[in-house]
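request received
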Amino acid sequence: MKRTVDVSLPIGPVHPVFKEPCRIKCETRGEYVLNAEIELGYVKKGIERIMRGRPWQEVMFLAERVCGICSVIHNMVFIEGMELIAETALPDRAAYLRVIVNELDRIQSHVLANYSYCYTIEHETLAMYLLNLRETAMDALERITGARVTCAYIIPGGVRFDLSDADARYLREAVDTIDRELNRFVHMFTTGSLIALRSKEIGILTRDEAIEAHAVGPTARASGIAHDCRLDHPTYRRLDFSPVVYTEGDNYARIMVRFDEIFQSTELIRRCLDRMEPGIIRGGSEVIAGTSRWVGEAPRGELTYQITTDEFGRVTDIGIRTPSIMNIEACVHYMLIGVLSAADVTSTYISSDPCIACNER
Amino acid sequence: MSILQDLKNTVRSKSIHVCYVNVGSCNGCDIEILACLAPRYDIEQYGIYVHNNPREADVLLITGAFSPQWEDKLMGLWEKIPEPKVAVAIGNCPISGCVFNREGSYLDPPVRKHIPIAAEIPGCPPRPTEIIQTILTLAPVIFRDYEGGAS
Amino acid sequence: MAEYLYEKDLREMKYIIITSPLHEVVMSELAVHYSLGRQVLRRKMINECDMSFLENIPARYEVWKAEDSVRDPVERQLGMRLLTVYIPMLPPEEMKAVEMGVRSQISEGIPEAEAYESGMDSIREMIRR
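response:
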């Protein structure tokens, strides 16, 4: 990949639209991007190395701090992996509560991703509306779990706190507010002709390319791959839903997939609240030696934990594959190629919802 | 110090520009800084403008413990910020390394080893209100007794 | 070694990426398959791929394995698409030449194991280069 080109355009590591440091190096002819490379390592923490040999009680909190934006799903996938090893039965109410918290987390993550995109294409009004809407989801999350970020709500055998009737009423109101407000914003987004000009037909990821790079989550679903790991999850399967799929594969489709998934999440939360029966929220069992591989659908896509424990409950080996690894790769090596201007490079990059902290662990 | 300089400094302390840099955090603190921008907390009503340009910043917010790639870059970034300037460490990571300061980690906390830190906000992550409060407390301190910038 | 004006030597960071637990699994499978040392493979990958490719190697390897069953035995044995498309560390033209060589050898009646071995030899040669 080392060639002499007209212009080599480095973007980052500190850039106004990047929420996290990374460096995109574009080889360009004029502003036409011929090739792009990414330089990482700015947030490399070595979490997998720290986790090794530690008791699960510590690894649980470390797993949450792989990514601050989608901390709930990291917690959930690690704990469910441990439950798979220990064969822990999960009370019904706890299973639904997990789904509720996970979907709230998905809502705030998707809203944040779309906020970033709107901010990048300089539509600051819509961006600020969305950021304010995110606070509604954060409030609900805080009311249920006690913390805004890294809440450690999901614990082996169940969840930490129960949901009172008042909380349930509050949650229903919050979900209704999100639905109502978001309807307006989606209308603004779809009818804004300037937004369409900045988003449609830009940064295209075809279905074959998405398969080749193993793109996951909204990035893959915007390219016509109807894959959602929630369909394999025992609790989600009871809530019957079908994944949101767009086939265009451009920036616009990726943003619309996220908007539609927020509506889907609010619907799932309502369904959980309807079906939840009073009961215990925590069971339990003993940790034994074993190996498990558990996959969950993070807001950004498929998240895999591969865990090996010994009989004392220590994690002897762990491998984490986060969705951003695949999505950033797909973005840099397929979406950015052929982008017509440097301004579209940043907006295309942001539209794939990159999370460098996940990517590097 | 002249009265004119005093007046200038007072006015300047009402308009603070903020730059943030992530030197190896988990994102949790970064999104709490972003939440400060939301109309709910509305950091701009206090005269604080958050963007990511070190060349016109007064306050540098640092999140995360220190990862090896930043060794040569953070000092360069710090030198790009014009005087007067302060750095604020947000969250436990830049203060102590939090959960990442363990055997096997690649990080090199605390950040105050690398650049001077004026204030530290503990928390994993701290609340947006705490971040805003810290910047507001620091604002008058940055420009107090500042003599330069006469032109 | 190229001299950079403002770029850093990234080999150390790339090595950190490529020694994570999931990469080790892939690396040990590849090392056994091609009977090469892990460090030789790692060096080739670090020289040829950028950082996001390196992070994505386990996922790409899985995609290749999933499409493995529909492909012919020559592909499965030599991993042409694996080494040129999924983990792009060898030039496609040279890989094509190796593939043609092996196929013609098989059609000429040389035992398959022997033909694969000669193909593997040239791949090993290319990776070591």
